[in-house]
C-alpha cells in the first residue's frame, strides 16, 4: 500500500505564505519574459503584505490619516459633542450608557509606492536558476501587483549605467503594465559587455528618486548594491530620513564563495576566461570580500530600522519568492 505523501517543513511554510499555494517555477534564465511579469499579478494578489509596523506599513494599501472625521474605517466611539452629526450617533452605546455617543471614522488616502530596480551590468550575472537582473525584475513585478491590489499608487525607476526610466506613481493597472514593459525593455538590452567609465549610477538613481518622492512615501530598492559608494550612501540616507525604505539584496551563490578547488572556464557571453580556485587563501579572501560588502549594506538599512531581505538566484518557485518577500519586517 502506497504511503500518503507528506509535506516537508519548508514546503508547509511556503504553502502557507500569504495563503499562496503556487508551486509554479519562476521562468528564470538570462532575460525576462514580460508575460510572466504580468502573470505575477495572481501571486501578488495573495501575497502577505510586508510585515511592518502598522504605522509604517508601506504595502497596507490605504494610509490612515491622523485627522478624525467621517470616512471609511471605523476608529472609535466617544461622548457626543455639540456640532457632531446626528447620523453618526451610536444608538446602541447611547442606550447602554444612557449618554449620547458618536462614532468617529478615519479618513483614508492613497500612499505612493516607488520601486527602484537595478538593471546594471553587475546584475547580469547568475550561476543557478536565473541571472540577478531577472530575479530583480520578478521581485519588482510581485511587489508592484501587490501594492496595486492594496490600493497604493505604484511607480518606479529602472536604472543602469547607461540610462534610467521613470514611471510616475498612479493607482491603475495601466501604470503597473507600463512599469513592467519598461522593466522588460531595460532587461533585454543588458549584455555582458562592461560599461565604459565609472558612472555613479546608483547615486544618480537615488537622487532622481528623492526628487519625485514626497514625504512618507514607501520605497522598495532592489539591487545587488555593488555600487554603494560614498555618494550613493549619502543619497540613501537622505531618502531614508523622510520615507519608509525597504531593501531587497540580490546575490548569486558564486558571489558568496568560489566553487571547490579546480580550474574553471567562465564567460560573460562575449569572451571567455579561466579561473583557478585551488588557492585556499584566495577563496577565503573572496568570501570575506562579499561578507564585508553585504555587511555595509546591512548597516545602512539597520541604522534607520529599515528592513532588508536577501534573495538568491537559486530560488526557483514563485512561492519561495513570495515567502521571502512576505518576511520583510521593520523593527
Write up what this structure looks like.
InterPro entries: DUF58, vWFA_dom_sf. This is DUF58 domain-containing protein. Residues 76-289 form the DUF58 domain. This protein has 331 residues and is α/β, with parallel strands linked by helices. The protein folds into 2 domains: 14-60 and 111-326, 3-Layer(aba) Sandwich (Rossmann fold), CATH 3.40.50; 62-109, no CATH class. It contains 10 helices and 11 strands. The protein has helices at 9-16, 34-46, 91-97, 132-149, 173-188, 201-212, 230-242, 253-256, 280-302, 318-326; strands at residues 62-69, 73-79, 101-110, 112-118, 153-159, 164-170, 218-223, 244-251, 263-267, 272-276, 308-312. A hairpin with a 4-residue loop joins strand 9 (263-267) and strand 10 (272-276). The longest helix has 23 residues, at 280-302. The termini are far apart.
Can you lay out the helices and strands and say which pair or pack?
Elements lengths: L8 H8 L17 H13 L15 E8 L3 E7 L11 H7 L3 E10 L1 E7 L13 H18 L3 E7 L4 E7 L2 H16 L12 H12 L5 E6 L6 H13 L1 E8 L1 H4 L6 E5 L4 E5 L3 H23 L5 E5 L5 H9 L5
Parallel strand pairs: 4-5, 4-7, 7-8, 8-11
Antiparallel strand pairs: 1-3, 2-3, 5-6, 9-10
